[in-house]
Amino acid sequence: MNIINELAKEFNLKVSQVEATVGLIDDGNTIPFIARYRKEVTGSLDDTILRDLDERLKYLRNLEARKAEVSSLIEAQGKLTPEITEALEKAQILTEVEDIYRPFKPKKKTRASVAREKGLEPLAQLLMEQRASYDKPIMELCAEYICTNEKDEKLSVLTAEDALNGAKDIIAEEISDNAEYRKAIRALTHDNGTIVSKKAKEEDSVYSSYYDYNESIKKIPGHRVLAINRGEKEEFLKVDVQISPELIINYLNKQIITNQNSPAKEHIEATIVDSYDRLIKASVEREIRTALFDEASEGAIKLFSDNLKHLLMGAPLKGKTVLGYDPGYRTGCKLAVVDKTGKYIDWDVIYPTKPREDIEGSTKKVERLIKKYGVDVVAIGNGTASKESEIFIAGVLKGMGNPNVKYIMVSEAGASVYSASKLGAEEFPDFDVTQRSAISIARRLQDPLAELVKIDPKSIGVGQYQHDMKPARLDEALGGVVEDCVNSIGVDVNTASYSLLSYISGINTASAKNIVKYREENGEFTKREQLLKVPKIGAKAYQQCAGFLRVPDSKEILDNTGVHPESYDSAKALLAKFDYTLESVGTGLKNIRQQCNKYGTKKLADELGIGEPTLLDIIGELEKPGRDVRDSLPQPILRDDVLGMEDLTEGMIMTGTVRNVIDFGAFVDIGVHQDGLVHVSEISEKYIKHPSEALSVGDIVTVKIKGVDLNKKRISLTMKI
User: Fold this and answer.
1) DSSP 3-state assignment of 684?
2) What pLDDT was estimated at residue 322?
3) Is 322-477 assigned to CATH 3.90.180.10?
4) Per-residue pLDDT tens for 284-309?
5) Quick one: pLDDT band at residue 374, thresholds 50, 70, 90?
6) Distance between CA 546 and CA 386 in Å, rounded?
7) pLDDT attached to residue 241
8) DSSP assignment of 306-363, as one string?
9) Using CB atoms within 10 A of its CB, is residue 188 exposed (0-12), middle (13-18) or buried (19+)?
C-alpha cells in the first residue's frame, strides 16, 4: 500500500484507481489492452500514463526489494538499529539506500581496514570524542599504540605518527561512508558545481564548441550532457566537475567539529580535507555525472519515442501504385513496383548516374514500368545519389507529359538494415539487399507503420544520441511506442506480416509466426474465434489480442471493428435498442450517437451491463467499422519539380515536412535533399521551452528561408512568417 499511495500522489490519481490499475498489470494484462478495454477500471487512463505508471511501479518495487535486502544484510552483521531502519524507510532513491549500506558493505583492503587491523580504532574514537583536554598530549596518546607485529610486519605501528595517520584514515573512511554527508555533498555539488570540458587533442572535430566550455550543473540541458559525454568517449574532450572545495569542507566542518577548543580539532580538520579529496570528491562527481547522463538519457528516450510515434502514425498513401527507387552509383539504381495493396509485382535496374550515365536507356525502363502498371507515385530514397536521381525522375515525368504521376523523397533510414535482415531474406529470398530496399522504400510510403515495424527502431533516424543510451532501456521504451501505435490502429489478421502481428497485444514472435503459418495451411481467417485454434494462443492471449485483430471478410461484421468479442452481445443489444440491424453498421447509423445521447449514455450503459466509456467506444466503432485513425492526417507532399540548395534565396516561403525534432530545434524537409533547421527560437512568436511543444515528426509546415550556407550545406529556416 505504501507504493500504491506513492503512485497515487505522484500521478495525482485516486488510491483506488491506482490499486485497480496495478491489479490489472499484475494479472498479466498488456498496456494496450488495459488502455482500450478496461477504461472503467482505470478511469480512462491512456497508454502513455499507463506506461509511465508501470515503469514507476517497477522502480518503486525494486527500491523496496533493495531496502529489504540491505536491511537483512546489515541485520546479519548484528548492526541493524532503529535509526538505520528509519533511514531505509525514508530513502526515496536507490542511491540513498546504497549510501546507507556503504559502511556495512564488504570492502577490499583499504588504508582504514589496515589501520583497524593494527588496533587503531580506539585511538580514532578517542580523537572523535573531541574532548576539551586529554590526559596527555595527542602525540603521547598516539605513542601508546606503537607495537611490533612479528607475524605480519605490515601491521606494525612503528611511530606515533604512524598511529595518528592510521586513526585519521579510519575517521576519513567513516566520514566518507556517512549517508547523510554524501547526500548533502551531492546536493551542494549539483547546485553549485560546474561541468568543464577541454580539448583532449589538437584536432578539429564536431566537438570543437566544447574545447573550452563550462556550464552550471543544474542548468546544463540534456543534449549538451550527451554531446560532452560522447566527445569524452571518443577522446576529443577531457571533462571535469568543478566546485569550490571550501564549500564542501565548511559544510563537513560544521557537521563534524563539535569542540573548537579540542586539541584534536586540527587533526580532524585535516582528516576532513583528506576524506573529501581522497575518498568523496571523485565518487560523488561520478554519481553526479551518472545522474546527469541518466536524466539526459530519459529525456532523449522520451523525445525519440515521441518522434517515433509520430513517424509510425504518419498518413498512409492508400490506393496508389508505387515505384520504389533506391538510388546508387556504380551498382545502379534499383527499381521495384508494388501494387495498391503493397504486393511486389516487378523490378528493374537502371544506370542514370555516374559512372555510366545511361539516361536514354534508364528513361525507357522507367517509362515502361510506369505505363505497364499505372504507377501513381515514384518514391525515391534520400540516400547516396538521391539528388541526381530526383533530377532524373523529374525529367522523365516531365517528358512523359503525365501530370498525374508525381514523385516524393522518402527517408530510407533503416532500409538497408531491413534488407540485410533475416526477415528481409524470408520475405524476398531470391532478391539481393538493394532490391529489397527498393520494395521497402515503396511500401513505407504506402503504409509507414506496417513497413517500419520490420526495422529496429534505433535505425529509423528520428532520435538524438540513441546509440549512447542503455540498450535495454531504449528497446523497452521504443518497443512500447511501436506496440501502442500498432494496437491503436489494429491490423488485418489475413494480410499482416508476422513482424507486425508480433506487436499486437498478447502476441509474441512465436505466436505471430503461428498465425501466418495457420493461414498459409488453412486459408484466410473467416472469423476471430479461429485464433483460438492457433498454437500458443490460449484464452488469455485471445482476450488480449482479439480486439486489435481485424477480419474484414468475416460474416460477423463486428470482427472488423475494434469492438472486443466480450462486448458483442452489448453491441448487438445496443443496435436492437434503436431498431438497427448488423447490416446497417457503418452505413445506416448516422443518428445512433444522437439517439444514445438523448436516451442518456449512463442509463443506457447500465442497462447494457457495460461502462459508459466502453459504450462510447462501441458507438464509435459501429459508426465507422475498420476505420484508420491516420486517414485524417495531412497527406505526404508529392512533387513534380526539382529544387536545389542553389535555388534557395533568403525570404523564400516554402512548405515542408518535419523529419526530426530534437532538443534545440527541428529539421524540415523542404524538397532540396538537405533538411533545413528551424531553431527552437524560430518556431513560434511566443516563448516555448522545447520544440516538441509546437512540432511533431510528420507535421506539414510553412517555413521561410533565413539563410543558406552552400559550403557547409546548412539551411536555416524560420516559422516566424
Assistant:
1) coil
2) 97
3) no
4) 999 999 999 999 999 999 999 999 99
5) very high
6) 43
7) 96
8) HHHHHHHTSPP-TT--EEEEE--STT-EEEEEE-TTS-EEEEEEE--STTT--HHHHH
9) middle
Tell how far CA 470 is from the center of its chain. 10
Q: Which amino acid is at 269?
A: E
Q: What is the DSSP letter of 92?
A: -
Q: Cα(618)–Cα(562) distance, rounded to whole angstroms?
A: 8
Topology of domain 2-74, CATH: Arc Repressor Mutant, subunit A (1.10.10)
Fold category of 645-718 in CATH = OB fold (Dihydrolipoamide Acetyltransferase, E2P) (2.40.50)
Contacts of 336 (CB under 8 A, 6+ apart): 323, 324, 326, 344, 346, 347, 435, 438, 439, 441, 442
Give residue limits of the domains in the chain.
2-74, 111-301, 322-477, 520-632, 645-718
Quick check: 712 pLDDT over 90? no
Instruction: Measure the CA–CA gap between 505 and 21, rounded to whole angstroms.
Output: 17
Contact present, 633 and 314 (Cβ < 8 Å): yes
User: What amino acid occupies position 485?
Assistant: C
Measuring CA to CA, which residue among 720, 611, 661, 578 is closest to residue 310? Answer: 661
Which CATH class for the 520-632 domain?
mainly alpha
- The per-residue pLDDT for range 637-665, each reduced to its tens digit, is 888 777 778 888 999 898 888 999 999 99
CB 268 within 8 A of CB 284: no
346 phi/psi in degrees, rounded to 5 = -165, 165
CA dihedral 418, 423, 427, 433 (to 10 degrees): 40
Report the candidate in 507, 405, 489 with the shortest Cα–Cα distance to residue 452: 489
CA distances from 522 to 234, 514, 535, 685 (A): 55, 12, 13, 60
Report the b/e string of 624-635 with b at 16+ CB within 10 A.
ebebbebeebee
Query: CATH topology for 111-301?
Result: Tex N-terminal region-like (1.10.3500)
Q: Which helix (H) or strand (E) holds 86?
A: helix 82-90
Q: DSSP character for 702?
A: E
Q: Using alpha carbons, list the distances in angstroms from residue 424 to 323, 446, 450.
A: 19, 18, 14
Coarse DSSP helix, strand, coil percentages of the chain, rounded to the nearest 5 percent: 55, 10, 35
